[in-house]
Structures are given as C-alpha cells and as structure tokens.
Amino acid sequence: MEKFIYPDDPNFSRPFHFAAEHQPGGPRIGGNMPEGLVVLLHDSAAYFGTFPLYEDNGLYLSLFINCSFAEFLSALNQGFQTDNRIVVITHEEKPRSKSTKYASKLSQHRLQIDGIKADTIQNDSGENVIRERHKFGGRPFCIQEPLMEGSEELLIQGYRQILQIDFPVSREDGKISGNWPFGDGIFNLFWKYPFENAKYYWCLQG
Predict the structure, then answer these.
(1) What is the spatial distance between Cα 49 and Cα 104, in angstroms, rounded to a whole number?
(2) Do the beta carbons of residue 120 and residue 131 sit within 8 Å?
(3) What percent of the residues of the chain are helix, what percent strand, and what percent coil, each to the nearest 5?
(4) Per-residue model confidence as pLDDT tens digits over 138-194
(5) Quick one: how far is CA 76 from the chain centroid?
(6) CA 22/CA 25 separation, integer angstroms
(7) How many CB atoms neighbour CB 85 within 10 A?
(8) What is the C-alpha separation between 49 and 29, in angstroms, rounded?
(9) 154 Cα distance to chain centroid
(10) Residue 23, φ and ψ in degrees, nearest 5
(11) Are strands 109-113 and 186-191 parallel, antiparallel or unpaired?
C-alpha cells in the first residue's frame, strides 16, 4: 500500500529542511518550474517549489503564488483561504524547465526529508508545543494562538496538513538567496485524498 509522505495521524509529522545544494528533479524549491506543466497564471505569479505527496510513487505537487506580494500579504492572519492566490498542481516526476516563465526569485535547493517524529515537543521553557519549522503532516504551529482556528475542523473532515513552511532560519537550512515569498511568517497548506477532487486550504500567518 502506498504511503503518504505525511503521517496520517496528526500527532506525528515529518520534518524537512532546504539543503545547501540543488538538484534538477525531485523535491526542491527555487529556480524554474517543472518542465511540461500547463498552468494559466497571472503575470505576477511565481513558482515556489515541488514537494512529494507519497513516499515512493512519484506524485508531486508544485506550488505557485499567483499574485503580487502585496496581494498575498493581504491574507496575513486572515485564517484559511481557498482562493487562487495559491495554485497547486499535481504531476509526476519532472525535471526543471529551461523556460523562465513563472520562475522563482529564490536560489535553488533540494529538500532533505527526515523521518517521522512526534509533532508535540518541549520548548526551551519546558512547555509542550506543536513542532514549528518545515514539516509534512502534524498540526500547524500557530504564531498567535495555541491552535490554528479551523484546523481541527479540517482534520475531522479528513484533511491533513500537507505542508508547513517556516522562515528558513534553522542552521539545517542552506543559505537561501532571493525574495522569500512568505515574509517572516509561516505558510500552511491543508488538502485531502483524492487530491484532484478536493479543495485545498491555505493560510499565511505572521
């Protein structure tokens, strides 16, 4: 049975980080979008990265920010959104395109994906908190409140946190250059199987 890259149990998550080096295919961020994708986006749109949905079967999602930075920031701390300021495309393994259309302004980095870990950890004060930083699965680390409003309802409906992307300040992240599209906040994406038939929810918090 094929296994999702994210744990189905939201009490666990799979951390990842952005390695110093890049690769032409597989999970990565920055650079040109994958070859052969047919996407109709706004002129200001930009590719962000490509992430696995399963451990082994080669199905990926590519994430695009389909608006200007100012328009995207208007979603800050407004809860879960479903509009097309974020566009997610599923596809099989594809190398980077030679075309610079919708190219990211970020340097290129591959993903280094860790094993499954408990999603609740102890912080420096000894308190149990939700795991922050980049991860597949688990619950959203909420900057403003203990729990992200609406996230538990989505989990009950069968949604899972596909992505949490934090500002790359960890020592594990490679040196990323360019305009980081999420400011200094956190981006969260919820989706559920079968992906092509389900609406996805995203939020930007800071």
Answers:
(1) 8
(2) yes
(3) 5, 35, 60
(4) 999 998 877 889 999 999 999 999 999 999 987 788 899 999 999 999 999 999 999
(5) 16
(6) 9
(7) 19
(8) 4
(9) 17
(10) -145, 155
(11) unpaired
